[in-house]
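Why does this matter for the project? Reviewers at the last site visit asked to see concrete outputs rather than summary tables. In response, this paragraph embeds two records directly. Each consists of the residue sequence and, immediately after it, the corresponding structure tokens. Nothing has been edited or filtered.
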Amino acid sequence: MTNWIAAAFGAACMTMAGMTMTGSAAAQELIVEKKIFELPSFTTQGGRTLKNVRVGWESYGTLNADKSNAILICHFFSGNSHAAGKYAATEAAPGYWDAIIGPGKAIDTNKYFVLSSDTLVNLNTGDPKTTTTGPASTDPDTGKPYALDFPVVTIGDFVNVQKALVESLGISKLALVAGPSMGALQTYEWAASHPGMVAKAMPVIGGAEAEAQLIAWLDVWAAPILVDPNWNKGDYYGKAPPNAGLPKALSVVTLQANHGDWTNGTFGRRAAREGEAPAKALGNKFQVQSILDNAGEARAKVSDANHFLYLIKANQLFAAGGVSLADAATKIKAPLLLITQPKDLVFTADGVERTAETLKKGGVDVTHVLLQGTRGHLDGVISMKQAEGAIRAFLEK
């Protein structure tokens, strides 16, 4: 994979060079191992039973004797389990939340056992460090890729696979469940559907249900794939994949996961190439267009179009606990540390505020902390060190 991390509710990209550890912190840098969890049989919330479900996972820190110090991190739309540390010291960048997970950090791996897993229908099918079951997987009954015969899966299904993993380790209660964007949706789902297993919850840059505006935007994200003739109604395995639609879809997500403060401040109206003014030819691009296109094309090399569409559907369907927001509030027992960015263009400030207020009215203990920055939604991945004090206080409370 490249040194661009696809962040938030899609493939928002940024270089991670500024997030590498230096000085004494580097001496404690986490080196982690990717593992695989297997379920011989898994029944989805829609009632379909899948055989041989496999997801990757990793952990940081040590599980204590009574198994009471476990924290689960749930990843964003285009992410995977790699939340912290490195698989090898030579890697250019650590996991996406390395700023807050590790020895002596806000989520202190000297104290906590932190684990994270890949989801079902994970986007990153071309990444050797990702293991997932989805449309690109081989159906054991046919010996061929599932393609669109794979059942619709939900955020609840993602959580139920995680629950099986957690229970296989002998963990009956999690000290914290946390995650950004789609990880926030999983966090709400954990708190609403399995309240007895969640002591505390930390949803970041996410609301507790997909509102109509978000559902519609997700449809816009998917559109470039659906109009690419090579998508062929999902039947492209062993054939030419939708290599025009998928990169453009990822470019659209990159744009929305950022903010105008970043695009305007970074690129302005500069041409992509000197001497190729956009006014001189239809094909001449502005720099911002070129950067977004390049990011989408790079990300598409390790992504699968059908998996992208299944993730879209799972996010569109989301409502915490499968009920209304008001009803979800009656189910959630854990205190919540809600961390959001007011310039977020994916989970907007008014939508997040509706979540916070509805949960509070339902009796949920909600602490709401705001991040600042120029990246909008993406700040929930790259600017989390701002919330270090709030996270420490929340865990110690």
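We now turn to the second protein, recorded in exactly the same manner.
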Amino acid sequence: MDLLIILSYVAFAYGCFKIFKIPLNKWTVPTAALGGVFIVAGLILTMNYNHPYTFMAQKAVVAIPVVAQVSGIISEVPVQPNVPIKAGEVLFRIDPTVYQARVDRLMADLVNAEAAVEAQRDQLTASKATVAQMRADRDRAQKDLARYQRASGKAVNPFTEQEATNARQTYLAQEAKLATAEAQAQQIQSQLDAIVSGENATIVSLKAQLREAKYNLAQTEVKALTDGYVTQVLLRPGSFVNSMPFRPAMFFIPKQTRNIVASFRQNSLLRVKVGDEAEVVFNGVPGRVFPARVKQVTPVVPQGAYQASNMMQSLNFDGRNGILAEVELGPEVEAYNLPDGISAQVAIYSSDHFAHLSVMRKVLLRMTSWMHYLYLDH
């Protein structure tokens, strides 16, 4: 763009010499040259600082890697590449046989566990009845033993020593049976007392496993979470996918706003502000200028952001690393159906300083847009 200003001045000076028939001598030529140096340099420096321009701009988008949550064989890929789809539409399906089988098995285990809990409650009721019966038998044996013991202290004992011994053995046997029945009842009660959030622990565990299995089964059908499109669909039925974060199955481009990310020189930091007027031209749309506004200015230079690693971090300084600004385009750009990632040039116009020079920047930006017909880079 600076070259356009210089060429414009050269053309202007040449026209003045021709129109006004100014003689070419040692005074006029140096005067025109030196005047051009000071005028053009002053205009370029003032304009570049107050109305920055950059050719390092791009219609940036966020691409979401689609990673399968479960592993398996691809059974169907209904999505078409680069065709807009709605949220909830299926991207691809994984063979659900294994995951459906696990859901069915856990559902059967859950039914068995619930039946087992009911059976334990019935067993506990029966055990309590057995304990009551054993306690009654023990008490009866204890009374018989007490009667034999009272009789043994009398002068005339109507019972033989063998009968007293049998009564004692019967009492001890009934005492042992009662202890066994109480232990069995306690064991069943302990199993029933294994409660989590008011429910049997075994049932809670099976329900949790069943929820996980149903979730995995649902993940065999991968759907779009938002509106957008998928690019480069390389999956085919029969392909195997892994649930690994570094092995995405495809890339999904969600529907996004009309934004341009531009990198400006650090010298322009004080003149790039949110809300400033801007204009954008695209290499793919020669001769057309699109109005825009500065949406945000990134508060960090990407090359200066460090992260923890297994190496000592050194200074990563390069004065050429620019500040990033996000520019939002108007609705006019929708008529051109521009592909995501297309390159652009952006000019920002500061309304606070040297606003009159913005006219020059606008003219130069339009000249740059016209030059795109010549298939030049910038």
